[in-house]
Amino acid sequence: MLFSPTGLSECLREWEDLEKGYQQIQDTHRLYKQKLEEVTKLQDKCSSEITRQRKKLKELSVSLKECKNSHPAPKLSLEDVDAITEIEDSINDRSNAFSEMEAFLPKKNGLYLTLVLGNVNVTLLNKQSKFAYKDEYEKFKLALTVILFVFSFTCRFLFSYRALDALFNFLLVWYYCTLTIRESILITNGSRIKGWWVFHHYVSTFLSGVMLTWPEGALYQMFRNQFLTYCLYQSFVQFLQYYYQSGCLYRLRALGERHNMDLTVEGFQSWMWRGLTFLLPFLFFGHFWQLYNSITLFRMFQLPECKEWQVAMCGCSYMVLFMGNFFTTLGVVYQKYMNNQEKSKTL
């Protein structure tokens, strides 16, 4: 409960206490600015030293290769070969260490973030802030997945209004645009997001934008229910993916086997494969549904009454999504198969 002075003497004493507190705040803020300047200088020094080391290491790697090429193995002693191999291994390890260091240093934004945000520093400089932002990203995806599921269900089964469909597509455009920005910030802060999944959201943004501009008509109504049903299924699968990936990452981080800023799983263990085996049929069914959407749209484009350019653009977008998602998921299955083959050989 706040203290409320009632007399003049109490007011004077309260003012003296406030004066002392104000002086302490000034001293603390002055120290804060001093430390902040020191941190900025250390950041600049560390960044320049890393850049210098990288350049020197690159030159050294070229020199070592020239040494091996100009001096065939028989002319090099065993000690020389071992020394060169050891240095090359250390260079690779040092490159990885520099990447970890740079995750906590300010860096220039990529082209996309520069276009969207300008030259604003988005690097989070401590682990707590990085984890909090990543956790917020995951919760954002989960919340929007639920909202999109309810919204698509409403449009599909309850109300059939073009204005409501447009609002749904606008929400999809905003959602995927936001994902691309947040993922770019996460990548800047050291997250190891697979390249296709980033590009996948750019294609989804484009697809949602094209659907938003598709005018009301017979062709739109012909594809509407199929599109909304697909969106329902996609939200359901994303919900399953969220819990699968979050569970895998939690166990991997607890075991100390995975980077704390990872969003997707790279490499599998037996306990992870059991959950993925359950998820794979849903994933492949969704991928082939994208192919079905693409074929449907291409057939609609061949109709004589088709005048809308959106039909062909949506068909191409779904084809790109199918190919990227299908071959990426197939690569995951192949990776697991090869891991099992290697394990069987070692047993």
From TrEMBL:
Protein species of origin: Lates calcarifer
Family: Belongs to the TMEM120 family.
Entry keyword annotation includes Transmembrane: yes
Keyword Cell membrane in record: yes
Keyword vocabulary terms for this entry: Cell membrane, Endoplasmic reticulum, Membrane, Nucleus, Transmembrane, Transmembrane helix
GO cellular component, one term: endoplasmic reticulum
Name of the featured protein: Ion channel TACAN isoform X2
Pfam family for this entry, one: TMEM120A-B
Membrane-spanning residues: 140-161, 167-185, 197-215, 271-289, 309-334
Subcellular localization, as worded in the UniProt entry: Cell membrane; Endoplasmic reticulum; Nucleus inner membrane
InterPro entries, per database record: TMEM120A/B (IPR012926)
Membrane topology, from the record: Multi-pass membrane protein
GO BP term, example: fat cell differentiation
Domain of life per record: Eukaryota
